[in-house]
Amino acid sequence: MRKPRATAATSGPDGLASAGDVAAIVAGTHGDPFAVLGVHEFDKGFVARCFVPHAEFVTAYTLTGKKAGELSRRDEGGFFEGSLSLRKRQPLRYHARNAGGDWWLTDPYSFGPVLGPLDDYYIAEGSHLRLFDKLGAHLIDHEGASGVHFAVWAPNARRVSVVGDFNEWDGRRHTMRVRRDTGIWELFIPDIGAGRPYKYEIIGPDSVRLPLKADPFAFKSELRPATASVTALPPAHQWGDEAHRNFWRNADPRREAVSIYEVHAGSWQLHDDGSFLSWDELAGRLIPYVVDTGFTHIEFMPISEHPYDPSWGYQTTGLYAPSARFGDPDGFARFVDGAHRAGVGVILDWVPAHFPVDAHGLANFDGTALYEHADPRKGFHPDWNTAIYNFGRREVVSFLVNNALFWAEKYHVDGLRVDAVASMLYLDYSRKAGEWIPNEKGGRENLEAVSFLQRMNKEVYGHHPGVMTIAEESTSWPKVSQPVHEGGLGFGFKWNMGFMHDTLEYFSKEPIFRKHHHGDITFGLVYAFSENFVLPLSHDEVVHGKGTLLGKMAGDDWQKFATLRAYYAFMWGYPGKKLLFMGQEFAQRREWSEARALDWNLLDFRAHRGVWQTVRDLNYLYRSRPALHARDCEPEGFSWLIVDDSANSVFAWLRSAPGGNPVAVISNFTPVPHDDYRVPLPTAGRWREIINTDATDYGGSGKGNGGAVEARAEGGGISATMLLPPLSTIMLELAPD
């Protein structure tokens, strides 16, 4: 770590600061202003020195208002010093005057540090789990004054200053104190409160002034295109969600219904003028809609601060700040609380894989590659033109682990969906030969990223039982959702990208050709229980020219709607938790764009309303039938009934779980109804039809079995003969005796 430049003695035999120190303070080049400014002992008394630009006269007072001495101007730039009539060292206030008027200010250099040696120890060790209580900007009372304590990690800087509207963005006026053991710079600035924009002015190791930097730990930011951090009171929301949190603390989410509605907060709905809804407005509209539609969780695409709307939040510059697009941070706390009181969980899309290279962000933060790898073969992401975090640096790992804990603690989120895990796990991800560096064992695995993910999961699950983590991971990396102590990455769940890809490929085929692609459906069950899976039909499938889910279905309009309804019921009956992107629950026709709201008027049309009603009823069934959710992640909850009828494109299986009646899921993926079709079932008796996606209420043709079928023992087995409606999925539940 580069140390601040050596400075001359703080005072000569007459108690005056050296000319070199005065010049350096006025020029803003002094590496240790606390050695010069503030209150200092001299000749059994005290002297004060301050830098007050524009002042012609300065008088020192104690915080209680007692006059302590007149200070003389040593430099016309605003350097003052003088003797004090004090018996003990204490903070000072100054009354400054010039020909135009007068003003008061409290001397930040007359206060002691806020951070202590224990903070230094745990920060240096990389084990500090309360960094968000120490770094960033915190409104505090300190040594008799109220103000804001700023702290930022910049170990290679020659100088770091806080700049803002409170000091005319002048980096000479609030230069910070460096804690050399950790590279943390800190400063308590009295007399400022919440709502003040600020940044850090950093002089790098080469003495070059960097672009002003936003605070990595900022808890609030300006609304884009402005990029400053903003001082903020800590969240003061009075939570009322203990019942919700207690339920999930004591639950095994693998055995609970988890049906996720993926939302982009900036385009779900908009005001008529195209502006964003606030968190409170979203709470009033989105939460009741999700409750009515039956989803158990809302998963937001990244809502932490980001400068560029079309990045959808995936290029974040403020991991600790809910985006100003939707109002104050407390508004997000109110949203989460409101969702919890309504029985809905909130999951955040979280991006620890990479960060943008905007000048005000983390890139080259202190004039060096601090948060990222210096070598672009490890530190630059070719797909997104972003920087990759240096997972081998304990301070960077601590920054990210603390962020995961921060959202769980401060905002009570129920889970983190971790973006782009595959890009983190492989050193050669999207790279050609020669563009990546093997690990210490010569392999392609990013061992440092593996260690980070394992630590993050251990800390989240260890400190916040009831919070789940979900990996977006598209490869065959083993044990993604198994515990760390068993050699896994420690995630609770993993997105099943293979299910999404194979099923969408299958349904894009004309029905007459589906018999040749039967394996696209059956193959997924070979590995369906190798991880704890979430089945995702996410935003990635409805952007960049991919159309919508309705548009991906083969056939004419009637067939598209019928196939989509059948697909949803197939998915809700398939083992694994569910995720559906907003708008697809009512068969949005236009491809999603972050720049416009969903086409809510489509719900006025019968076919679209029918798809929504199908999803609503599926969510109800999924939540109310243990057979459909309680063994989502365990093979004993699934058994094939019909696996090889490729000629008719029919699939049937049984879902079962303790505490509930078994449910048979039967799909016919051709537009031809099958009369007198025999389906084997495990138990004789009456099986009630609990959903039929061809029902007229959903927009179908209305073909079915009168609400029930009878299973009988015949020919050494038990089966039921039934009608399979065209392009449909039906579910049958064994009726109780």
Explained architecture:
The chain is elongated. The chain is of the alpha+beta class and 737 residues long. The chain has 15 helices and 35 strands. It starts with 18 loop residues before the first helix and ends with a strand.
Write the layout of secondary structure elements.
Blueprint: H1 19-27, E1 38-42, E2 45-51, E3 57-62, E4 67-75, E5 79-84, E6 92-98, E7 101-106, H2 117-125, E8 136-142, E9 145-153, E10 159-164, E11 177-179, E12 184-190, E13 197-203, E14 229-230, H3 242-249, E15 259-263, H4 279-293, E16 297-300, E17 304-305, E18 318-322, H5 329-341, E19 345-350, E20 354-355, H6 376-379, E21 380-381, E22 386-388, H7 394-410, E23 415-418, H8 421-425, H9 447-463, E24 468-471, E25 493-495, H10 497-507, H11 519-522, E26 533-537, H12 549-552, H13 557-573, E27 577-581, H14 606-624, H15 626-629, E28 638-645, E29 650-655, E30 663-668, E31 674-680, E32 685-692, E33 708-714, E34 717-724, E35 728-734
Parallel strand pairs: 15-16, 15-27, 16-19, 19-23, 23-24, 24-25, 25-26, 26-27
Antiparallel strand pairs: 1-2, 2-5, 3-4, 3-6, 4-5, 6-7, 8-9, 9-12, 10-13, 11-12, 13-14, 17-18, 20-22, 21-22, 28-29, 29-30, 30-35, 31-34, 32-33, 32-35, 33-34
Helix pairs in contact: 4-5, 7-9, 13-14
